[in-house]
Amino acid sequence: MNKKEVRQSFENSSFEKIKFTKRNRETVHQLYEKTSKQAEAVSSRYIKPVLSFSVCVLLIVAFIPLAETKIFTDGQTGKLMIEGNDMRAGNNEVTTKEQLLERLKDPLLFFGSFEGKYIYFNKNKNVTKKITYQVSTKSDKINTNNNTSFLQIIEGTGIHEQKLFDEVAIKKQLANSSDVFPMLPSMINNKEEWTYQGTDKVKGEKAIKIKSDSFQAWFHSKTGILLKYKNKDGSYLETTGLKFNDVINREVFRIGTIEPTGTIHEFPDEMVFFMEPPRYKLIMDMKLIKAETHAFPDQNQIKQTITGKDGQTLTYSVKQVMEDSMPPGDKEVDLKDGKNIVITKTDRSIDLKWRDEKNDLNYNLIYQGDVSQNMLEKMLDSITKK
Amino acid sequence: MEGINTQHYSFEDSEARAQIMEEIMKDFGDDILRLAFSYVRDHGTAEDIAQEVFLRCYTKIDQFRQESNLKTWLYKITVNRCKDHLRSAYFKKTFLTDVINKIRYKKTESTESISIEKQDSERVVQEILSLPTKFCEVLYLYYYEELTLQEISDLINVNLNTLKSRLTRGRQLLKHKLEGGDFHE
Fold it and tell me: How far is residue B126's CA from residue B178's CA, in Å, rounded to a whole number?
């Protein structure tokens, strides 16, 4: 082979399909905008150091959660590094098994939100997952309910789940569900099986260690967040980044926004039947405030999460949809009941917009991922039934 | 190396800066992403790195040395960032599993509809990318990016003679992997 042939090999291979897309470019613009604003915020903080210090002292005295700890992974050493001060947590480090259990059951005690990244390898399934999650109890202007909390899990590059809860429910969700940390509910439910092993270090951070016959786990001593997990069978979890009480990253986490590459479609506070879920899961008569659909091309399936007015959520898989994909483009469809729907299909999503004249409401429904003709017909059918 | 020189640009306001960056990303986005991919061999990670590189470019573009070539500068940041990533503990833990999964995926992806020529090309690329980084980077930059040895030497901070021996050794390894096929400069 000569130089020309090697280059041709690259050009003929799938390597040439690697493209820096419009979406990548948009992400860079958005990140720059965000970092610029953060830089402005930081500089203004330094302009008034005395005032900031005074505020901090007052807040400590008042015992108000003001954890602004950011932990992130240093690219070169892999060491977890902390920025800012987590003042309240600093005086409340976990030192006993009982304290750890309490912290695990109420992980939001010391912060209103957290965002984390970890890698999880499940030996039994031989699957490695890169998860990004964000939990917040803070009200958000785009959520319809001010008391709403949310949890989002991003698996790899695709959004896996988005859920809304009330503040009590989200604590239960964190402690009892395997959504965020797959192994956590088992640890809490089988608390007799493990023992507290004292303090240890994980990537330079103080951690408390627990141990059972089958696993070892390390938790951040100040917050109780799981940092590391090792199972005898070879499964492991390793945190690669954490942020507490940080500004919600809208580039990664989109709740309720209607954007070209968004994954959310919103419904007003009224009864909506959207893609009939499997009957065995129809356990509650929900007034929906949100329905979300996410495509998983790797798994060849679509999952939907519907959210009720009272914070109930229901996630279920929609049948296989990846064959017979629609070509990109726009078209208008008139449904049987007279609704006129504009369909916009792009490479990454399908966007349906229609207006309910009777109730003076506009609807926008966005699917991310490929959608078959058959799937589209079902979607339109479900809208007609409504 | 060809490329845009920032002396043609002005940075009077944020809108102008955004337009310039859009132009730069359109011009060099694919190259930077592919270069990152050649190091990290994971599309998602390569995307992250390419975005970081352009974000850095965004913030530093007005301090950019006029005499330098923008593409060289972007390449240098990319190479350094990729090497940082490869040194990280996170990468070391995940790399093996990812590579195994990719190899499996590639094997199942192969169908009759893919031509023999295409398969051969895929294989050559796969073999180059599977070489140790120090050989892969040289082969990639020399054969695909068509940089001169001096340019590569400047880019990755490696002595010219060392670079030559790496190129030779890289060729030998590739030839061996391709099972006896001829490999000429």
Answer: 10
